[in-house]
Structure formats: structure tokens, C-alpha cells
């Protein structure tokens, strides 16, 4: 089974404002039966990765969850360099996560990678309180064409 996950195309949102942040494109291509959609593409920001890691830790029991790149406030070097280092760290994090059978079974991970749902919507969906099941949410996103790489 093949699972290719790429974190790419970092973009600064709200540039120049106090609440600017960087989000990253997460591209997933797989033939794994674990995934509903075989190709997807979503944008997520660092704090969403932090949330995902926390959720995976809660549900993984004794299985160690890979580390995220640090949240550096004192970074020496250019902003571009920092963003690129973080992008690489986020990619390594996801590559390790999708190789772990226990973590791969967490539906939050699938919604994170294969839907545009916000974190509260992911939580509601996983707990059966959303308008769709996990599979429906992923298929809805995939069918809306935004989930496919053009």
C-alpha cells in the first residue's frame, strides 16, 4: 500500500496584520484501503496540526505520537527559512503518522487530511453530532471537486 502525503505551498494569510498566519497545502495520494478518497488536497495551519497531535495522543493510548516542529518565537534567520523548516517538520510529522496503524485508524486524522471541516466540525462529526458521517463528509468534499488536485 502506498500513502504519499506532501505538505507544500505555504501561504501567509492576513499579511501585514497582527493576526497573520501561514497555512500549508496538504496533498494526499494513496491506494490504501484505510482512506475513503484516494486523492485529496486541503489547507491547514500550524495550530490545527497542534490540535490533531493532541487528539491523536488522547486516542492512541501508549502508542507514541510523532513530534511537531517547535513553535519558535525567537527564530534567528529569515521568515522564509523558518516557514520552510516548519513545512518540512509538518511533512515529517504526517509521514510518520500515516505509517502508524493505530494513528491511521483515527477518524479525526482522515477528516483533517480529507475534508475542509473546521476543528469543531471534525469533533462533532467524529462524535456523530454532525450532519454527515465521517465517510460522507470526506466523499462530499471529494465530489465537490475541491478535494481533487486539478
UniProtKB/TrEMBL annotation:
GO cellular component: endosome
GO molecular function: phosphatidylinositol phosphate binding
PROSITE patterns: PX
Gene3D superfamilies per the UniProt record, alphabetical: Phox-like domain (3.30.1520.10)
Family annotation (SMART domains): PX
Main location: cytoplasm
Topology class, membrane: Peripheral membrane protein
Subcellular location: Cytoplasm; Endomembrane system; Endosome
Assigned keywords, A-Z: Cytoplasm, Endosome, Lipid-binding, Membrane, Protein transport, Transport
Entries under Pfam families matching the protein: PX
Record-level GO BP terms: intracellular protein transport; vesicle organization
Keyword Transferase assigned: no
Record-annotated PX domain positions: 2-119
PANTHER family membership: PX DOMAIN-CONTAINING PROTEIN, SORTING NEXIN-11
Family (UniProt): Belongs to the sorting nexin family.
Protein name per the record: Sorting nexin-11
Biological source species: Colius striatus
Amino acid at each position: 500500500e502506498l500513502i504519499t502525503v506532501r505538505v507544500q505551498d505555504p501561504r501567509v494569510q492576513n499579511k501585514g496584520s497582527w493576526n497573520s498566519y501561514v497555512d500549508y497545502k496538504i496533498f494526499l495520494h494513496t491506494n490504501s484501503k484505510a482512506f475513503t478518497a484516494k486523492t485529496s488536497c486541503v489547507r491547514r495551519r500550524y495550530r490545527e496540526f497542534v490540535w490533531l497531535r493532541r487528539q491523536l495522543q488522547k486516542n492512541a493510548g501508549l502508542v507514541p505520537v510523532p513530534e511537531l516542529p517547535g513553535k519558535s518565537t525567537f527564530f534567528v534567520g529569515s521568515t522564509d527559512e523558518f516557514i520552510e523548516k516548519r513545512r518540512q517538520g509538518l511533512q515529517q510529522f504526517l509521514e510518520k503518522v500515516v505509517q502508524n496503524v493505530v494513528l491511521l485508524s483515527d477518524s479525526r486524522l482522515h477528516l483533517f487530511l480529507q475534508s475542509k471541516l473546521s476543528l469543531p466540525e471534525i469533533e462533532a462529526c467524529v462524535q456523530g453530532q454532525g450532519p454527515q458521517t465521517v465517510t460522507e463528509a470526506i466523499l462530499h468534499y471529494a465530489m465537490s471537486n475541491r478535494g481533487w488536485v486539478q
